[in-house]
Amino acid sequence: MHIDHVGIATDDAADLAELYADLFDAPIAHEEEFDGLRVLFLEFGDSYFELLEPLEGGTVQRYLDSNGPGIHHVALETDDIETALDTARSHGVELIDDEPRPGAWGHDVAFLHPKSTGGVLIEFVEH
Predict the structure, then answer these.
(1) Rounded distance, CA 116 to CA 121, Å?
(2) Hey, which of 12, 67, 89, 123 has its CA 20 to 30 A from 113?
């Protein structure tokens, strides 16, 4: 596995993308509206920053309301999301998603609960 992306919750994805493009020369690799979010992926070599701007209520809006803008999750790419979930289960990790579900960019995703992973929301992503 390797880090696929870092999800960043923000109130204004376009503004933050512009700042990161200027600061880090990180181009927008992909943009979409998905699941009540505006999602922008900024390319950093073979990894991304995923900027998450809520367009309506939902988990990212609740995160922003509670914590303000910042790192929301870390996504690990896996070639076999089912095996990754089975491994997490076998280690007693609480799953948010018992089965993979559709995610941004058409990838399969599943989240692990942060109370089982040292306070970090971890996403498995299979391309």
Answers:
(1) 9
(2) 12
Whole-model pTM?
Answer: 0.95
Mark out the alpha helices in 1-127 (DSSP H runs): 13-24, 59-67, 81-90
Q: Where are the domains of the chain?
A: 2-126
The encoded tokens of residue 43 equal 């390319």
Place of tokens 């933050």: 16
**Cβ neighbours of residue 31 closer than 8 Å, sequence gap 6 or more:** 38, 39, 40, 41
Phi, psi of 77 (to 5 degrees): -80, 135
Query: 2-126 adopts what CATH topology?
Result: 2,3-Dihydroxybiphenyl 1,2-Dioxygenase; domain 1 (3.10.180)
Helix (H, G, I), strand (E, B) or coil at 89: helix
Q: In sequence order, which residues have a C-beta less than 8 Å from that of residue 8 and are 6 or more positions away?
A: 16, 49, 50, 51, 52, 69, 70, 71, 72
